Amino acid sequence: MKDKEYHILSLSGGKDSTALAFYIKDNMPEIHEKIEYIFCDTECELPETYDYLNKIELFLGKEIKRIKPYKNFEYLMAMYNYFPSPIKRWCTVEMKTKPFRKYVYDMFKERGEGTIHLYIGIRADESFRAAKGKYGDSYIEEEYPFVDNGITHSDVMDILEKAGVGLPDYYKWSKRSGCYFCPFQSKMTWLNLYDNHPDLFEKAKAFEDEKNPEGCEFKPVGWNLDMLLKDMIKPENAKKIREDFERKQQKKKQESPRKLINMFADEPMFDEDDCGENGCLFCHI
Ligand code: SF4
């Protein structure tokens, strides 16, 4: 019998889900009391994300349960034998969605079946992303406190500042949380990864090197559809990527701020950084 009520907030290491946790703490104390904070840890997240989560945990005063995938990325990559991509995003399914469902399954087994109120940090200024039934699971009831209470981007920034946690450190060079090799990241972010975490860039490149041995005549395969990482860091390509990025930034500034895409100028949801699908609620919100 499904008579129990559970409350869960899945943190991504991003600013909106973090702000929601503090919003709930300050404005919905009865929910904060019983909510479970979780983090679906791919074990491939950025070091800054792990640091940020530790900080959030400390400031929230509640444990964030780390949920791990059943196999690590290396194993899954060998199993699928192709790079995850925006079109075939098996990474989210295997490393986020399935572990979350397993967590729920174990919870129901241990504590009894019920309804899960899943709190999602979609803001009022992006409310078109909010939809009941988004997860497609009958036991999940999506909750959008920011949409319901008119909390926008500037409010989120205020919440984070007031809470004392601020933004995650990766914001200095990347706009999103997620795996260091996320195929959704722009070429500019790849270059920033190279500058900020050369070891992780090398690790990502090693997957490409393995799949594209010297002298192989097949079309190269990698994290990006059109350029391997080893080519991306060639000076002439890196220069062009940086110039294109700058040009795009300038163009954005000149365009009308009323244009929908520019309302989210700090989070380019509809360009090459875009995820645009449900699973990324786990990865990037
Ligand atoms: S952050 Fe990117 S690579 Fe990691 S699971 Fe999500 S979509 Fe896949």
Protein architecture, described:
This protein has helices spanning 15-27, 29-34, 47-60, 73-80, 90-111, 145-148, 153-163, 187-196, 198-211, 229-232, 235-254, 280-284; strands at residues 4-11, 36-40, 64-67, 114-119, 140-143. The chain is of the alpha/beta class. A 5-stranded parallel sheet has the order 3-2-1-4-5. It is globular, with a radius of gyration of 20 Å. Iron/sulfur cluster binds next to helix 5.
Shape: globular
CATH fold-level assignment of the domain at 4-170: Rossmann fold
Q: Order of SSEs, N→C?
A: EHHEHEHHEEHHHHHHH
The span between the termini is 33 Å
Strand order of the largest sheet: 3-2-1-4-5
